[in-house]
Amino acid sequence: MPPTDVAERLRAAAFELFAEQGYDATTVDHIAERAGVGRSTFFRVFRAKEDVIFPDHEQVLARIEERFAAASTEHSLLAVTDASRLVLRSFLADADRARERYALTRAVPSLRQREIASMQQYQRAFREFIRSWMDETEGSAALTDLRAELMAAAVVTAHNHVLRHWLRDPGASLDDVEAAFEEAMGEVRARFAAPRAAAAPVTVVVAGASDPDTVAEQVRRALREGGPDQSRRSGLSASP
């Protein structure tokens, strides 16, 4: 039997038992018996009972690192968005199981702590990547570290906000959650994207006119008709 099939049988058995008799009352032996495998088979697939509940975070982290490794500095914010989307889709891949997991983590404090620790792993990966391309010219290294931490926290917060709303709304479609995610990440990017450089000032020189009203009218006409290029055709010259 392929390992993935065994893992899925164990997961299905575990969630059935958790629903029937509770998480704490369910043992590894119970899960293995319900799945029709031995105890040793369980531990070849999972390290502990709680591992049955959560997605394979190590696999998701590996995919995140691959995405970051392929990113250029110019597209670093896009890479962070893509990485956060990978995390989200690891939950969306099985909606029913994700909602069962959500109910368990709300009810069992140790599982809640495990979930928090997993999200901290993602935040750490985001922070390290963000820090690698942030420029220190606008402040000290400590300030740059803080900016990277703030941005990573914002990415995780936005992700969790979208995920929680989806988990609490069984009627929400995958299209709904994807749209909400894009909107949330757009908010993050808008707050942390580097500001665009201000446009260079333009000086307009008017030749052949001294009356203020005539000058003002020629400037207005030049601006309406196309800026500096049109200004030159209208008897005006513009220089940066």
Automatic annotation (TrEMBL):
Residue ranges of domain HTH tetR-type in the record: 4-64
Residue spans binding DNA: 27-46
Alphabetical keyword list: DNA-binding, Transcription, Transcription regulation
Signal peptide: none
InterPro entries listed in its UniProt record: Homeodomain-like_sf, HTH-type_TetR-like_transc_reg, HTH_TetR
PROSITE patterns tied to this protein: HTH_TETR_2
GO MF term list: DNA-binding transcription factor activity; transcription cis-regulatory region binding
Name of the protein in its database record: TetR family transcriptional regulator
Native source species: Nocardioides flavescens
